[in-house]
Design brief:
The structure is a homodimer. Chain A is mainly beta. Chain A folds into two domains: 66 residues, no CATH class; 210 residues, Fumarylacetoacetate hydrolase, domain 2. In chain A, 13% of the residues lie in helices and 33% in strands. In chain A, the strands form three sheets. In chain A, strands 1, 2, 3, 4, 5, 6, 7, 8, 11, 12, 14 and 17 form a twelve-stranded mixed beta sheet that branches. In chain A, β15 and β16 form a beta hairpin. The longest helix of chain A is centred in the N-terminal third of the chain and has 8 residues. Chains A and B meet through β7 and α5 of A and β7 and α5 of B.
Chain lengths: 286, 286
């Protein structure tokens, strides 16, 4: 099952068709995409039975109308240094426990947005984002997958100067400017993937002249703390809540790790894609 | 005006009387305490006209039924090192910008709770907590007070071993265990204070035998970044949202800064009071 937020209404999507959930369910499920996580399992049981493309009420998908699949998360949990090569390029040791920060909720955005550059050291971080379905504390690793609604694509945009200023370092501030947590285009449930632990993840920078540069190209097999382990560890401290977002960390290839360092410029576009989910795009402006 | 969350219903309170808002307003305002922040100004205009103690529908206040005044904040912004003497006892330089972390929303609790100690280095931090009324970005310092719903009392409970483990330090994890963000007993609007920038703030530890030890005793006049300045600075990065909590930092006197260090023990009770608001209490269990 693939769901999307289409201008604030929950939809099921398949290929190039979308189906409004409230209409198709005759009001059983609310149109608000944030409300679906309160009883995720009932919704998922209903939604997986629907053949969207063949449904008489389905309509063409308008990609430009897509917003964040989980638009009002109670908690946005960022995980740093969760790919070994990225920890190395950041000059930091491999963590013994997940390195956690937040991206404040007001930075959450949809899959196709414009971003005003708040500084001259804005960097990209392609990330697999877990959307929590069923909440909980002290979740065993073996039970962790049952707490996941699905995966979406995220960018953990980071203003590096702000992130690293002060003691302790200001990760949560450097990563929370407007539209710095774009997500989408859809939430895909785990049954959509042949192997949900092995997904290609990549970032392209597209210049104002259309030149494409692939800067990140990896696989989620490289996660230091894989998704189930991560959920288990996080839930020993934080109660996970329905609709929460977990940004699971980025593979190598960020601008901060390049020699010379290279950051996002006015007129550039970022395209982040994860196998089996889709791509999100941000356009940057000075 | 003083408002409280009484077992999930919004109430106006005065001295030892409480008035259910939905009932008294004949349904104009919703009973959900979290909903009131969506149109704070309309509510405040109505609520300040009510004489709670004289109102025919008011009932005796049951202190044991109080919950968090803003129970579902979209963002919980923690500010560290915001009293000069506390920065010194923490061994850290005085910050040039607010030091920001989050207390994840699942740690938010009411004013009278039991806390399971997750480790043997749990410390106290008495804090004035700002509750946001009207949201916004790039708020001028001169306009900041108009964005405040009111003040409440908070404890920024901190497991110091977890907080300081890893690189960067894990403030948001060390401060987000269950019930680690107790708040209350009421939200008091700024007109309730003779000088809302000069409030006595203190923490008492009460031993199992009833012995009281005053460990923090200061005034909010000592804030490095006073409330209006803090709101202005934070809003340059983060869009403030209605109902958000801002934990404004703690004065000196935490256990980590003592020689020898001293942390909370099984059977101890913490009582944190701020002038003009009231007191919150936590009981600790191993």
């Amino acid at each position: 099952m693939r769901i999307a937020n289409i201008t604030g209404r929950l939809a099921l999507v398949a290929e190039d068709r979308a189906l409004d959930v409230e209409t198709a369910s005759e009001g059983r499920f609310h149109s608000d995409p944030a409300a679906v996580f309160a009883d995720w399992e009932s919704f998922a049981a209903w939604g997986t039975e629907i053949d969207v493309a063949a449904h008489p009420l389905s309509t063409p998908l308008q990609a430009s109308a897509l917003a964040a699949p989980s638009p009002r998360p109670r908690q946005v949990i960022g995980v740093g240094l969760n790919y070994a090569d990225h920890a190395a390029e950041s000059g930091l040791p491999l963590p013994e426990q997940p390195v956690v920060f937040t991206k404040f909720a007001s930075s959450v955005a949809g899959p196709d947005v414009d971003v005003q550059l708040p500084g001259d050291t804005v960097d990209w971080e392609a990330e697999l984002v877990v959307v929590v379905g069923r909440g909980g504390r002290n979740i065993a690793e073996a039970d962790a997958l049952s707490h996941i609604a699905g995966y979406t694509v995220g960018q953990d945009l980071s203003e590096r100067t702000v992130q690293w200023q002060g003691t302790p370092a200001q990760f949560s501030m450097g990563k929370s400017f407007e539209n710095f947590a774009p997500t989408g285009p859809v939430l895909a449930t785990l049954d959509e993937f042949a192997d949900h632990n092995n997904l290609a993840i990549q970032t392209l920078i597209i210049g104002p002249d259309g030149t494409e540069t692939r800067v990140q190209d990896s696989s989620t097999t490289q996660l230091v703390f894989p998704v189930a382990d991560l959920i288990s560890r996080l839930s020993r401290t934080i109660e996970l809540l329905p609709g929460d977002l977990i940004f699971t960390g980025t593979p190598p290839g960020v601008g901060m790790g390049m020699d010379p360092q290279r950051f996002l410029q006015d007129g550039e576009t970022l395209r982040t894609e994860i196998e089996g989910i889709g791509a999100i795009v941000q356009r940057f402006h000075a």
